[in-house]
């Protein structure tokens, strides 16, 4: 019997739940009996994680697809512009130890040509500064766009820093009031259906059984459906990525204080600190490994960093790892319920967006089509999780910092095989897009270039490259310098642009 997918039930009202609700509802807008009903159930007792302030440029497309205006988003979420990350102290911890991972790609796509040009014409500059328009002195506090530019368009590629709790509230209002998603505030207490079969319905404390054809588990670390009900294995990655705790705090800022355009990640003795500038505060988080330092020591490190003994701090625990697969029977887990890897490159929300996009683009019409989609989805996302583990670990393995945490991070038995092979290969040539399996990698070869050369890996210059190519690259590098100067001079500061935003539309 053909079973149409008519009712989708999302459980969880954190960033993941509302993003998937928004993308699904915007893509499938018919709420009539012939269309698709979407219900989001959110527990009033279990708070959302309340962090997740750094995003990827994909978030612009996501918000635009959901139908939110950029000005409304910036104002409601007290957001600011993010143009990449800056890593301080990761190589050896010395004063000048700093490099960028910007969002703009380097000029030129061929890695051999890039390295040749960098080494021949500007070896005194960092890789990013020599080849990327976004990583230049004077760019720290500038906005990526002019006020007159259309929504979600910029002169430079950008994402946002945002208040995660406010993003949830904005998405909820929009998705419920404009896109017709039904919102139920209740706690799911029971899953109806055997563990070997599809979920028929969920039971809640105060509502009757809520039936569905497809259930989306966005219940955060609890993973109520995929983990607790179906028992899908969690593949722990703590032997590779050691961090398992965070201490978070907020530092108020003044109306005139500059807002930095990068997430600043500063390494410390057993982890790192994020520093994220929003409109009225900086979000600070000290990420650390409990095997190497105590909670008290982590708090001390955080207080030294923010130079305050008074601000309240919140402690969070997490495990780095992911579920063996995310789509099981008629249940798909998205967000923390599917897995989490430490937030060094803000890879969690982007995975939520990619999952939500894939589901809403390829939503099967009938139950019969679901298993085929599940196979494809699981294969791709298992690959993505593993590549993100590689990429995050890369930040640690090239460090020359001392101390047990950093030394252990470089031990071969903690480095995934694939990353080991990459590191060996890249001794003889630069990272290339053909090292990776997909055209749409979460972190493409250029991201690897920024990290490996930012961390001082020797660049292998190809001796036989055609001289005409060198000339062309030289011209491109001159264009980079010209553009860096004109952006620094011509773009407003983050603060000025955000202060002058028009009032949000109703
Ligand atoms: C320290 C830290 C820093 C991070 N920083 C970043 C970052 O900079 N960038 C980034 O991309 N990501 C970051 N993340 C990850 C990011 O916070 C999450 O991916 C994102 O917020 C999505 O969370 P979620 O919606 O899956 O879960 P949650 O926010 O935990 O939401 C879970 C939801 O499920 C509901 N729920 C739970 N149980 C039930 C039940 N039985 N019945 C009904 N409802 C239920 C809860 O009420 C809640 O609404 C960070 C995470 C951590 C831990």
Morphology? globular
CATH superfamily of the domain at 7-53 and 163-238 and 320-386: FAD/NAD(P)-binding domain
Largest sheet: 7 strands, mixed
Roughly how many Å is the radius of gyration? Answer: 23 Å
Q: What small ligands are held by the chains?
A: flavin-adenine dinucleotide
Helix percentage range: 25-40%
**CATH level-3 fold name of the domain at 7-53 and 163-238 and 320-386:** FAD/NAD(P)-binding domain
For the secondary structure, the number of strands is 21
Q: Let me know the average pLDDT.
A: 95
Uncertain runs: none
Describe this structure in words.
By secondary structure, the protein is of the alpha+beta class. The chain has a domain at 7-53 and 163-238 and 320-386: FAD/NAD(P)-binding domain, CATH 3.50.50. It is built from 15 helices and 21 strands. The strands form five sheets. A seven-stranded mixed β-sheet has the order 5-4-14-15-16-13-17. A six-stranded mixed β-sheet has the order 7-2-1-11-20-19. It has a three-stranded antiparallel β-sheet with strand order 8-9-10, with no helix packed on it. Helix 1 packs parallel to helix 6, helix 1 packs parallel to helix 9 (347-361) and helix 4 (111-121) packs across helix 14. The longest helix is centred in the C-terminal third of the chain and has 31 residues, at 367-397. It is globular and about 70 Å long. The two termini are 46 Å apart. The mean pLDDT is 95. The structure holds flavin-adenine dinucleotide.
